[in-house]
Structures
1.
Amino acid sequence: MSVRFDNPDRAEPWAQRHWDLRAAGNFIGGGTGTGFLALAAIVVLAGSKTVLPFIVIGLGFVALGLFCVWLEIGRMFRAANVLFHPQTSWMTREALVAAPLFGVGLFAIWFDDRMALVATAAVGLAFLYCQARILQASKGIPAWRHPLVVPLIIATGLAEGAGLMGVIGWFVVDDRFYMQFLPPLFAVLLVARFLVWRTYIRRLGREGAPLGTLAVLRHYQPMIFGFGHLAPFVLFLMGYVISGRSALLSVMLGAAMALVGGWLIKVVLITQAAYNQGFQLPKIPVRGIGMPRPGAKPGWSEP
Amino acid sequence: MTKYGIVADLRRCVGCQTCTAACRHANATPPGVQWRKVLDIETGEYPDVQRTFLPVGCMHCDDPPCMHVCPSTATRKRDDGIVVILYELCIGCAYCAVACPYQARFKIQERTLAYVEGATKNEDTRFDPAMLGVAQKCTFCVDRIDDGLAKGLKPGVDPEATPACVNSCIAGALHFGNVDDKDSNVSRYLAKTEWSRMHEELETGPNIYYVWDEKR
Amino acid sequence: MAPDGASAREVKRVPTYCYQCVAGPELLTVKVVDGVATEVEPNFKSADVHPANGKICVKAFGLVQKLYNPHRITTPMKRTNPKKGKDQDPGFVPISWDEALDLIAAKLNELAAKGKVNEQGMPRIAASFGGGGTPTQYMGTFPSFLGAWGPVDFSFGSGQGVKCTHSEHLYGEFWHRAFTVCPDTPYAKLIVSFGANVEASGGVCAVWRHAEARGRGARRIQIEPHLSVTGATSSKWIPIRPRTDPAFMFAMIHAILFEHPRDRLDIPFLKHRSSSPYLVGPNGFFLRDPASGKPLMWDSRLDRPVLFDAADVDPALEGTFRVAKAYELGADGQRWDHADVLGATSFTKMVEHLRQYTPEWAAKICDVPAESIRFVASEYLDAACVGQTIEIEGRTLPLRPVSVQLGKTVNNGWGGYDTCWSRTMLAVLIGGLETPGGTLGTTVRLNRPADNKQASAKPGPDGFMDYPMNPTDKENWIGMPQVRNANRTLIPLVANSPWSQALGPTHLAWLFQQETPPEWPQMQPPDLWFVYRTNPAISFWDTPTISAVMAKFPFTVCFAFTRDETNHMADILLPDCTDMEGLQLIRIGGTKYVEQFWHHQGVALRQPVVPPMEGARDFTWVSTELAKRTGLLASYNTYISRGAAGIPLRGPNYDYTLAPDVAYSHEDIWDRSCKAASMEISEGKEERDLAWFKENGFLVKSFSQLDWYLYPTMVERNMRFELPYQERLKRIGLELGNRLHEKNIHWWDAQLEEYAALPEWQDFPAKWENVVVKMGGTPEEYPFWLLTSRSMQFSWGNNVAIQMIREMARNMRGVGGVLMNATRAKEMGIAEGDLVEVRSPLRATKGRVALAQGIRPDTLLIIAQFDHWATPFAKDFESPSLNTVMPISLDLTDSTGSGADVTRVAIKKIGGAR
């Protein structure tokens, strides 16, 4: 056996290890699925009669996400206990919203009801909001508890949904005509996500955050910007100006990149940048005689 | 009213980890799971350097974020301020662990042993499968307190009713008692000293009070 | 929540003690659940009698894992591979206890038949026990067995001389019966500490008392190259260049003598309780009265010389005086008769001697601003409270709440004499030696009786305390060593108590095994070597060489808890009952090592908290069996009855003496000890048997605080502390030189130079640099000083195989790695966690770097002692060790036979962080 050499000076924040890719999977599935449903609602309101594939794909993602988180919890067979604390826990609320989400969704499929799809998408947005609030209530992770996490999770959820729609919507929709407004909407959602993301990072840096968090976010920033935003944006524009088969391909490629870019944001946010609060030394104490000295908050950026 | 808290006099702590060891014994936590531990923090630059020892653990917050986020209501706050976990309710989602700004919570999925060769007799005697896959943290040795109170003892004064870490402290740095009682040992200590609490800005109302000077 | 709270379980708490380190004992209880030891707790019942409120240190919490350790040796073992060495598999095979004891007894009987000493006059059996005598607290009646056997060579030791506070042991005991020196912390206002790491090595008493002291505003100034836990909790840290502490201290004394008025000193103390007024003649010896031979002083009232013990005189503290008739007594009876001779007082000699050592001079050497030195000197005087008194138990005594403490590496090796003298002199100057608040001795080990400091301070020559020096005169000098480290031959100060051999320059025993000086026959290895609670293959220096030497020992018997690097060379392994399985009664309280001075004294029982592991045997049982099988039972029983196991079994009105030819059970022996001890403590009023002690754990009576201090005894017996002027040491040094030179021995000449009446600064750092050159390097190639430091979790504990201890220690910075200055590391391209090689001219050790600001840029630190290759668990640490790279060299051995844990090294990155 080997004895681990670790730095025991753990006063500074370290990357949390409680939630890993499985938890990120929940945020990815939930965001992408509910975002997709929101886009599907727009398509349906625009006149499409497609219901079943949209619901199956959207709720499929949500279900996949929930399955991921079920894999993460320590006591799988007590999963139902998650419902016990609606008074304050956004995790309970997320679980509680999941029930009508799937209920209305199944209703929409059963009755092939377009308005029920729209209702499903509305419940999906509530689900997405719960997910955003789950993160924000995590007081121990400065990168999560920041108020901009809520718009960020919602913006990226919608953008992911748009991305997914841009990848497979063409194949399941009854008439592609109903989707012609999608490329500009994609572009708008992308810009919105990027602005929230950039503001979020800037404000974290400005207001003080664990150095590890900032380093990780800044490390991934060029990739998230270039791959997840700039390239798709250009591809959407191209899809708008050119025509025919290559226009569709261009939009599909851009959509895929926007989708993966959103997933990347979540993986980074949940598994990489989630440095915990760390510890704070309130004051350097007096030893025998003298004056106390200012304390320290190791591993934090200055606000 | 009763609100239990710990006073940690940073002037006295020497970082010996006796409290850490006592906690590991009292609570039979597995290797590496230190509900109580002492950090060794260096500040300044050579040659103007200071080193401070900072006992940390669950702060039994007045407004515990871990409790609010807990979806199963396993985490609860008792009337005496102690934040406890009902292990049989906990689903092990670790949401509390990321909600805690004091890194006080642990979750062990599989049994870990001191030696790879197998469990020692004491590990077998004390192994409790109920502790696997659920959140765990400092309980202020709640069983000792309850048993002690049942015997008419006073927590923080009588060792049998006092958390193991406090009992063990060889520097007299740790004190336990009812901070809501102005005549208690801890309240009297706090009345004559300068102190503050960790991450006050997060408004959790933590109940470890760090003393760093005499009141001037 | 403690999962063992289930009501069906049977729970009990068993009282016992922990004495894993010299700063013990600590009284504890073990919670036993359904027959399994689970939790260690302080014995809360001892809170009222124990100086640290009954607390126990972190090491005690490792004992449960020790008890149930999967690596324990579970049965006696016999070596089957006759070849010994690190690379040899010992081929241990299990044998029965009967076979093991028969093998050992056969060997012993064979040796007894041959003669218990070999052809060279050295004991055929040797024994090494761990540091500070702690094994005695665990080995039951084994000392009685060794006593019954007769000559035993303890000179191999386990690191004594290089790992203890060796110079302090010798000079401390010489000057104030202080085998260990400590501040009177309960009254201290200021402690100036040169590297004394009491927060790691002083046990719970030190930690508790120093915390109390800080609580009431006492200051500690820590002067050391790295910021230890003690430095951390001090009010000021002064990072001094390694090995330059004497210069700092000389300059402190200089500042006190030359930059402050004389009346800041304790003039009456200097005049009447020290040798300051003694007149020194032109040859450097005291001027003596021709009629009585007594040293002379100058009476300033009558303006004439007077005998040192004359009543009602006012001796001149300073000045040079003309004496009509006097003589000086030099070495080997050399005598100078003087008429009309000038004599300067010892004090004046000291003042003149220290004139050269200014703070500016020291600043350059120590790399510390002169103003810092002046500041410490001035603080020291301010805190001394000269003139103040305190009433203790109805007696008025001087209160001098200031003292100087020395760390292990500061008082060992070259410069040790200088630092010990300076610290003691600083106490004498302000009258703070052995007075409340001041500098105290807490243990007597070289003088007799060892259990009573006051009784051990007997009047000797010239108004000083007597001291059992080893002879240096022509007739009595022991020219042929009697044991393998030649302690009595080379070290007069080490005396001849039961402790002297193991205290002596133990590294010389290992050195001489490799190559004995030509003047003596090549020293033979012991025919049989007993080892218990020590691992010199790790804890000594140049450990690979030490291992190779022990591989040549023909028959080694190790009492073994797990396999380790020393018992890798053993022929027989014996699994004794470990800490929580054995039975023993020890004395507690009174004054003991380090800061163990109590208001109580008595005895405490160690008992099996659970039935011993099958295969393990109680040490007393083993001892009795060996005595039986070697025909020594009668003598062994007599030793026990006389008190060799701690308690004499016969007293004024009780008699539990053992019959000579009965093999008593260990329970019976300790039952008698319990009864005798309780009768002794209660002065014959109450008999408590073993069952009572098993239930109650300990029994004490009160101990007078006045016995913490030697000062009242010095006054009562009209004795003086033998400072400042070391006339006696000077004479002895000359005589020793004569003896050695008569034998044509010149390899001890550098050591002889230390026998100076007043210590002189030598370029101590250069002594280490010279060794580098001698070994073929240059100081520039090895630009760092490598130091070591204790960790509270490990020190003395023999507990490196215990996971809990490792886990606790790793919470502290640097433990298990190489601590380095972060800025210097950056310059060298070394980052946190990098794998580095630390190389001395001898060899290299490897480890991972931990960076800090709290260490000098020219210093590296490796905490504790690792580099294990056989000890289970520990061998996977990949931790470095100073011991691996530290050469054993006569050039690094001072006149007391000690060496310091420091060497010059280079550091190189050899791998990245994991």
2.
Amino acid sequence: MEFNRNKSIYLQIAEGISEKILSGELKEGDRILSVRELGAELGVNPNTAMRSYEKLTADGIIYNQRGIGYFVADGARRIVLSQMRQEFLEIELPDIIRRMKLLEINPKEVF
Amino acid sequence: MIRISKLGFSYGKDVVLKDITMNLEEGRIYGLLGENGVGKTTLLTILSGLKPAMSGTIEVDGTNPFERRPSTLSSLYYLPDEVLPKQCSALAFAQDMGQYWESFDTGKFVEIMKTFDSDINQRMDCMSLGQLKKAYISFALACNARYLFMDEPTNGLDIPSKAQFRKAVTKYTSENTTIVISTHQARDLEAIIDPIIILDRQSVLLNATVEQISEKLYFDYGNTVEPDALYSELIPGGCIQVLPNSSGIESKVNIEALFNAVLGNKETIREMFKK
């Protein structure tokens, strides 16, 4: 896996999983890879994979069933959707607007 | 658990390690970094019981590895930078040497060799450097030792094998394995090493997890040079800078930039990471 240069790797991994939930590749109730399996699949430190899972758990997107594994939580898609919309509106969109002004692009040319 | 306290070592008058103090916790994959000649290899050989500590102490599970007790030696494996081509097949080598590690698993050796696209029946003295390295890496992982010390393991590996190596290190070790990897190939191993240890000729400059590093330092990729940057370097499309993290936002740790920032600001870094 190639990582974006700016964002913490554990956050990028968490986002990758969130996007799979959004696209429907992962469904609510699905079991996901164990921490070590994920680490091996991506070639990252298990501690990094663990931090991604801790973040997703804290956000209510996945949950851990002791001794069995991690699962996509009920309502996960709704949470992911609202998180990603918020990130888009607060971080990505202002950036796009700034670039458009700089490049003198009229919104009408795009939409 | 490995405890190192005030460890010193010299070759004649040439002091290599002077005052090394650190603990290595179970289940971690440590990256050992330092400029040429700071004693990374020497430290690994002391950890493996090949050389004695000349001052200070070193304990692997409470025992000095230089006592070379069978129980200590069979709990660790040291993979040197340069490896010997034996006059037999990789499989014969692994089965023969594997007898010294009670948890050695031939099936695992065969499986790892397969992930590297290597032929277990090829004679080691007919292998290229990279092929030989892969055979030794496969053997090192198949020993299932609690401690695995690897000196520049990705040297000589081709591009696909570097990714295979990163995956294998996580896949074929357990939560109880403690790994120390010395390397100059920071990019090869960036995603896999955590915590990161940086040595200089005197002592340990840094021993911190990636989480701790990204809490204290911010890695910025931008166009404007910040006055409080500890390190900055021009790269295509802008520059990378290492700054004290004042926003609390976690960025991706760039190990090369970290290394240069630490070497150029030894005291500042020491203060920052003081516990």
